[in-house]
Amino acid sequence: MAGSDLATDASSAPDTVKILIAGGFGVGKTTLVGSVSEIVPLRTEEPLTMAGLGVDDLEGIEEKRATTVALDFGRITISRELVLYLFGTPGQQRFWFMWNDLALGALGAVVLVDVRRPECSFAAIDFFERRGIPFVVGVNGFHGEHPYPPEDIREALALPEHVRVLLCDARDRESCRDVLIALIDQLIAAAVQA
Amino acid sequence: MTVGDPAGRLVRLFALTGGRTRPSRADFTLISTVTAVDPPPATASRCQPEHTRILRLCAEPVAVAELAARLDLPVSVVVILLCDLLEAGRITVRPPRPVSRTTPDLDLLQKVRDGLGRL
User: Fold this and answer.
1) Half-sphere CA count of B32, side-chain side, radius 13 A
2) How many CB pairs under 8 A join A and B?
């Protein structure tokens, strides 16, 4: 890191990049991470400092989770020189103060949408749109079933033209891989256009 | 505040960090890669047990988030311990690949795409 007087590089260490997997609570984020990760998704639990959180914000947190917020993530080794991390963002809105840090330096995001309750992912879409963070939408079908075509979902979510919408099954490796590839393709398309 | 009581942890988190709640340096992100310096510097003093556990886990390069998960400690605590090790010359840290929205790295994106295609 710039200005550091200590060893801040390890030539044998790979480059790392990350993609966020976002969406409402219980939409299948950790399932998606687990489907494509080469390791069983890992979890870190962060104690919640009360700073920055109003007392009201803690209302409704079940007792067991009252003091920590969990972050699940997985890993995909692209090559010896490059490793991709996938971070499932905390679903509950009261934990969103963590999202800014998480989003910093991310290639982009996948917003997972539960076809039965798309409104749960509105806030995630809004978050990335406001910050100019590129994202695609993966529509996770309940039991892999997709009653609506992608166009209907796009309309329901009022998504701009350049945001890709893909039907997917968070339990299926290839399906999740294709959502990630769609995000990278969208990033490449934007880069070529620029 | 104790964390991980079901796991039988006996040491309070703030004891691990000597009461510190903030890192002394800003070198560590979730995906910064940490590697133990091998052999350790001649001046290396004895470590606390948690420091030793970290050094063992990062004999090969490992990301901060993975370290935290494997240690079953919060990232914020691990980062404070990593600062100690960095300042003692026991580890090196590699920052994540920078990502720019204004000048996207096509080569990087293509590599990621190729890698995903092989899944």
Assistant:
1) 23
2) 156
Tell whether the model's pLDDT for residue A179 goes beyond 70: yes
Contact assignment for A8 to B35 by CB distance below 8 Å = no
Q: In terms of C-beta density within 10 A (0-12 exposed, 13-18 middle, 19 or more buried), how is residue A70 classed?
A: middle
| Biggest alpha carbon–alpha carbon distance for chain B | 49
Angle at A182 between CA A177 and CA A186, to 5 degrees: 150
B65 → chain A, closest CA residue: A44
Query: Taking Cα atoms as reference points, which of A121, A94, A92 lies closest to residue A109?
Result: A121
Q: Which residue of B has its CA nearest to A4?
A: B27
The ipTM assigned to this model is 0.87
Asked whether residue A155 is domain-assigned, the answer is: yes
Hey, are the CB atoms on B104 and A4 less than 8 Å from each other? Answer: no
For residue A107, the enclosing domain spans 15-193
Number of folded domains that form chain B? 1
Span B34-49, pLDDT tens digits:
999 999 888 777 788 9
Predicted confidence (pLDDT) per residue in A115-149, tens digit: 888 888 998 999 999 999 999 999 998 888 899 99
Query: Which CATH number is A22's domain given?
Result: 3.40.50.300
In chain A, whose CA is at the least distance from the CA of B6?
A: A64
Q: Is residue A5 part of a domain?
A: no
Containing domain of residue B90, as a range?
A: 5-117
Residue A143, classified by CB atoms within 10 Å of its CB into exposed (0-12), middle (13-18) or buried (19+), is: exposed
- A10 and B35 within 8 Å at the Cβ level: the answer is yes
* Chain B residues touching residue A77 (CB < 8 angstroms): 115
